[in-house]
Amino acid sequence: MSLALKINPIEIPELLHIIGCHLSIGDQKTCMLVSKIWFYLFRAYYWNHLYFNRNGVPNLDKYGHLVRSLTTFWADDHDLLAIAGSCHLVQRLELELGNAATEKGLERFTGNLPHIRDLIFRVPFTFEMKHLVAITRLKRIQTLQLGGGDGPLGTECDFMALLNALQECPLLASLRLNGIREAKHSSIAPEWHLPTKRPSEPPSTSTLSRWVRRLSIRNSKANPNTPSVVLKVKEPWRKFVCDTTIQIPAKIPEILQGHLPDATMIYPNLTRLHVKRFDTRCSTAPVGLMFRKAPHLKELHMDFASLTRAHTSECLVAITESCFQLQTLTIWGLDSDLETRSSIEQFFQQHRPDLRHFKLKWCMGLDYALELMPTVTVAALERVCFESSIRSHPALHRFMTRCSSLQYLTWTAEYTRPPLAPRDRTSLFLEPWACYETMRHVYQNRCIDDPESFEAFFGRLALMKRLVSFGISLDDIRRLIADHSASSASMERHGARYDLEHQDQHQPQDQPQDASEMAIQLSTQRPDYDVRHRARRDEDDIDEFLQNWNSFQSVQELTFSANYVSTAMRMMLSKQLDANEIRIIMKVFPRLRKIRYQGCVFPLDRNARELLEMQVERRISIVHTSQLPSLAL
Questions:
Q1: Is residue 123 located within the same domain as residue 62?
Q2: Residue where a domain stops, chosen among 355, 386, 404
Q3: For strand 469-472 and strand 143-147, is the pairing parallel, antiparallel, or unpaired?
Q4: Angle at Cα 147 formed by Cα 141 and Cα 151, nearest 5°?
Q5: In sequence order, which residues have a C-beta less than 8 Å from that of residue 579 and are 6 or more positions away?
Q6: CA atoms of 543 and 541, how far apart (whole Å)
Q7: Which of 62, 239, 248, 386 is most solvent-facing, going by the fewest CB within 10 Å?
Q8: Exposed / middle / buried, residue 447 (Cβ in 10 Å: 0-12, 13-18, 19+)
Q9: For 253-295, how does the pLDDT look when each residue is reduced to its tens digit (9 = 90+)?
């Protein structure tokens, strides 16, 4: 018998690896108690991610080498030394420093964690020079996120010193700045002196509580100079010794001494930049220099809401002149005025051959900018998102006539405020879109109030034969259901009228008619002819409407927007879908198999839920948008 047949199936490492990746922390801990083999296999998953609290973690000195992802909040020197002495193989770190953290603790912490690749770094008030020097010691860092709390003020930081510090991270590929406020005065000083007196302990209720905390930390703090002999033999990687001989320099590194970074020293591997809530209203620093030092950017998310007009123009010009390889472009809060109009026009007129994803969010007055984009650039777009940005339906339709490769369209919170001109109204209905054969997902919410624009928009959606996922609000789907019900009732009335007219045509005529009687009969039949002509025309409109509804047969997923509850009126803003409306939806979308909804309110009432539960042959799952991925993705 082979060795493979002697192994118990529940002890195969490959199967246990698949099982351990999908278990929760509690289940992983339970699996560790099954047997020794399971203990050694599942302990790696149990200790893979660690939440380090201020009371310490038991057995950290024994299993700290298994930690790869670590999260700690409001850390001081005791926490930093405990982590550095045990968890020296951490690759992902989420660190939030407290006010009691000193330069000595930071230097020893960063010096003994050389394998960090992903860093989320937060400080309560200000990024001081000791924080920036700590970042420069992490030479293997690839993803960096800097920010403070979620408050409106943000975290103060010297922007020029930050750019200088990033030059010491050669492998940096992704940078995210969230809630950064430019310092009013430069924090760079010619000398960096250490404090002569160590800060006091964090405030506590009594002396007894401080001693209890020290005793609890003793279990999680490893002795760096005397590692266990047993661990040396069984696990050779535990021979690592925390370096306590690191000396804090008396001066700032030379790279951080200059006030103005060198524009010729670029960030060679930086391809992703996310800037949000970056406040420069109290600064005169050249913010555009950050984009000139990152010419290889492929993904850019930029928030212009907190920038001044001068800094907005400077950033747009820098992006236009330096970033030619953008593939994903997301813009927040860009407003057009006299100061920024020229830079906006220059920015949108540039041809970007690699651009595939384009998103505008809360951008006012940019309807004219869409027409400035080159046709070659627009034709290569695959995903487009407009959220509270486009105030003109003709501008959107003219933009869509050039999107020949578009697959994903999101259009939310739009209204046609001014009345449409005759030329715009004509072009709104006559110009065809160029993405009928490529569109896969459409999501629109609270976009259209005008009935003619509503019919034109959904008439174009009906021509998309490959549409798989469709997002819509409850009010709009109810309007479509009402139109479908009205068309069905009108079709029944016209069918009954046609039967009566058909019977009248086959009635026998016994007596011959003279010319006067024939003239009278023709004059009386003229209204009947108009009625039949109008009925035939209505039947053609109904057939076209039903044909449009039948074109939604490829849709497999519906996404309903959030239904909010008014706290003042204590009622839902939109009524839930009932059983009759669900029957029509199942008839219109024969291939529907998933309904996704947003918000906290369930979109179906009790009768509709019972109706779906009774469907045995056709199962339709209803999930929240945060539970399962979309079919279009």
A1: yes
A2: 355
A3: unpaired
A4: 165
A5: 605, 607, 608, 610, 611
A6: 5
A7: 239
A8: buried
A9: 555 555 566 667 888 899 999 998 888 776 677 888 889 999 9
